[in-house]
Design brief:
37% helix; alpha/beta; seven-stranded mixed beta sheet
């Protein structure tokens, strides 16, 4: 007679058949991200705006200093849109093998123009934060105030002749509180780091909204027009700022 209280054989889940790298860099991160998704009561809207094939630049706002927004967004794109995005991230991840190898295995790519363009020319989706570290490490007193967009994401989209999908993310600003943005003057000149208040994430409610894709009506040669690149980046920034402010009004208290 079968004992229904018996502990299931581990082979049912296939864990014994998985190698160490798969467990550490695929199974475990996916498990943790699903926990975070529930912890943050994540709401998602507009996934249908991500093209199901071909090159695309996914351009979100950046905040929360830990990079949770990059992890969760990459996970959502993979799970909901069935795309495996190349997430362009801060070069600090790649300063040593200890952090660089895990970052690469989880789909992170150092945020350089060449890396982004190469991925697009191969027909991949890339996630690129136009604000860069200035958005990620800004103090919480400036929450949801978009920092000036860099123009690289526009140039990449034009060179690859692919659409841009803007994304607004709410919740990261309240999840991790940043007191101040510290700037290096001597070592690593030009870099900034955060001064965090909390390490354990606060249970703010998250919302990710994918806006309609933007198809730029210009040839790739337009990348040489710096004034046009600035104008396009500014227009997209204003569009995203308006969307963020509308979402904040609808959301109300982020912890309820």
């Amino acid at each position: 007679m079968k004992n229904f209280l018996q502990k299931p054989n581990e082979k049912i889940f296939g864990l014994r058949n998985l190698d160490r790298d798969t467990l550490i860099f695929r199974v475990l991160p996916r498990f943790l991200l699903e926990i975070l998704r529930k912890y943050f009561r994540l709401e998602i809207e507009g996934v249908e705006n991500i093209p199901r094939r071909g090159a695309v630049v996914i351009a979100p706002n950046h905040s929360g200093y830990t990079g949770f927004d990059a992890f969760l967004l990459g996970h959502i794109v993979q799970e909901e849109a069935k795309r495996v995005p190349r997430v362009l991230t801060h070069h600090f991840w790649f300063l040593t093998e200890t952090t660089g190898i895990p970052a690469q295995k989880m789909g992170f790519t150092e945020a350089t123009y060449e890396n982004g363009l190469n991925a697009l020319k191969k027909g991949n989706a890339i996630v690129l934060f136009p604000e860069g570290e200035q958005g990620n490490f800004k103090p919480t007193t400036e929450r949801y105030q978009l920092q000036e967009f860099k123009r690289g994401f526009v140039r990449m989209a034009l060179e690859a002749q692919c659409p841009i999908v803007p994304v607004v993310i709410l919740g990261a600003e309240e999840t991790h509180i940043n007191l101040k943005k510290l700037k290096f003057t001597k070592f690593l000149k030009g870099s900034v780091i955060p001064l965090p208040l909390n390490i354990i994430p606060l249970p703010a409610k998250w919302r990710i909204r994918f806006l309609e894709p933007i198809y730029l009506p210009y040839k790739s040669s337009a990348v040489e027009d710096s004034e046009l690149m600035h104008e396009i980046a500014q227009d997209i920034q204003e569009k995203m700022q308006e969307a963020i402010e509308a979402e904040i009004i609808k959301r109300g208290n982020p912890f309820l």
